[in-house]
Amino acid sequence: MPPNYYTGPTGHSHTADVQSVQTAVLLVNLGTPTAPTAQAVRPYLAQFLGDTRVIDYPRWLWWLILHGVILRIRPARSAHAYARIWTERGSPLRFESEALAAALQAKLEREQPGTLRVALAMRYGEPAVADTIAQLHREGVRRLLVLPLYPQYSATSTGSVIDAVADAMKAMRWPPELRLINDYHDDDAHIEALAQRIERWWAENGRGDKLLLSFHGIPERYVRLGDPYADQCQTTARLLRQRLQLGEGELLVSFQSRVGRERWLHPYTDATVRQLAADGVKRLDVACPGFAVDCLETLEEIAMQNRDFFLAAGGQSLRYIPALNDSPEQIDSLAALLQRHLRGWPASRTDDGAA
Ligand SMILES: C=CC1=C(C)c2cc3[nH]c(cc4nc(cc5[nH]c(cc1n2)c(C)c5CCC(=O)O)C(CCC(=O)O)=C4C)c(C)c3C=C
Ligand SMILES: [Fe+2]
Ligand SMILES: [Fe+2]
Prior knowledge:
Number of strands: 8
Bound molecules: ligand L6N33NVT, fe (ii) ion
CATH topology of the domain at 188-321: Rossmann fold
Order of helices and strands: HEHHHEHEHEHEHHEHEHEH
Shape: globular
């Protein structure tokens, strides 16, 4: 039988429950290297930076630069950064995403016993989107709801997940019915979750002089070409500012993680924290609402690198407020978001529980 050919509900599944569950939720995050070494980071960066959604230069030119220059230098530098945040559980992006998926599975199982599966895939590296969808398909999944773990849509992040899902579907004779959440940047429950998470953190740790929201940047050119990302970041920030009842000067927005020589979204986070310190701000709180779970970009770039920049420029403390991760706030808001997008699909037990 050809690979990915639907074998029916008795196919390859191991438990009665899995056999009967025809609807799956697939969470997709970016992916992360398997170890904090140049050797492990290199193939990860090659796949990531080789994606035309991420870098759209003409292929032959970019291939020469990527393989001739960047992949000779960057893996060692990135590996050094990864080593600073690596734990005995591995890469934070990976174990935090797994914890989120497990908590969502448990929550949805309590709400609708035996009707839904939650799976997790990574856009780059493992577990690959195509392999995960093929496995769900073999287990009899006929309806698939995909949630890319990016609150704001960008072609470079969400768009690339859509490509990977489309490629996986193309390889199937009878693909499952598909729904795909584009973004949840202005979802009421999501804004409420962010606000409560920040307020809870302030209640436990006290409050700084200002709150900076740092989002991952993208090249400005992509926004001119129609990417809604910058607008969605600003909307998330505006809604959060209203909900937290903060003034324009108390909640600021910046963009981090710039790569290469092009102009990226402004203002840059590193320049912003230095300027704030120079302006006399002593205690700065930073949150990164664009990241569903903590990762290199929050734990190393913000909580370590930018903290150092702020202190060196005269600031007293830069405190990073953790991502929503698998907090009750995140689980409740994402479960509600998923339930809304699942509406209209039949309850998926086909065996009336008799298996
Ligand atoms: C070079 C172009 C890049 C674009 C465009 C980009 C957009 C983008 N990225 C995220 C989320 C994450 N990025 C992460 C790491 C990371 N990002 C880039 C480059 C671009 N990102 C690189 C090269 C790296 C790897 C690390 C490094 O070498 O600096 C991560 C963390 C991964 C981890 O393992 O922890 C996340 C998450 C979004 C949301 C986005 C567009 C909006
Ligand atoms: Fe990135
Ligand atoms: Fe970075």
